[in-house]
């Protein structure tokens, strides 16, 4: 599981920063499944893979298909991990708690794999990447 916590608005600049960091972690091509939010569809993000064809392939989910997006399951896991009495009340604390949570999850691959067990997201585990 690779992630990047940030406090600014999510835009094409943040997405490209994430893509740069992501491809730096692997010695093989990454197939990244992403939804169609506006930052993902921006000209900047669409142009970025052209300069990194040997490192990454962006695969877009069909329009409005949250059931196919494993991120939704991971986000639900994060939201349910914080006890009610410890809900964060500011952005800086949210970033700290998010990093802490995902640091734990990175050491718990069995839980991360569990997010891909449902029939709608099992496609992401396939050795042969799919096209939507």
UniProtKB/TrEMBL annotation:
Domain Tc1-like transposase DDE intervals: 4-94
Family matches, as InterPro entries: RNaseH_sf, Tc1-like_DDE_dom
Source species, domain of life: Bacteria
Protein name: Tc1-like transposase DDE domain-containing protein
UniProt source species: Streptomyces glaucus
């Amino acid at each position: 599981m690779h992630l990047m916590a940030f406090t600014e608005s999510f835009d094409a600049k943040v997405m490209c920063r994430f893509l740069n960091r992501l491809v730096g972690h692997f010695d093989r091509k990454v197939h990244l499944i992403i939804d169609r939010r506006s930052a993902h569809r921006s000209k900047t993000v669409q142009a970025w893979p052209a300069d990194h064809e040997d490192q990454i392939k962006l695969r877009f989910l069909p329009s409005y298909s949250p059931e196919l997006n494993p991120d939704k399951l991971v986000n639900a896991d994060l939201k349910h991990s914080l006890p009610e009495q410890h809900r964060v009340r500011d952005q800086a604390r949210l970033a700290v708690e998010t990093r802490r949570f995902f640091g734990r999850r990175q050491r718990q691959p069995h839980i991360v794999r569990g997010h891909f067990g449902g029939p709608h997201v099992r496609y992401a585990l396939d050795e042969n990447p799919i096209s939507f």
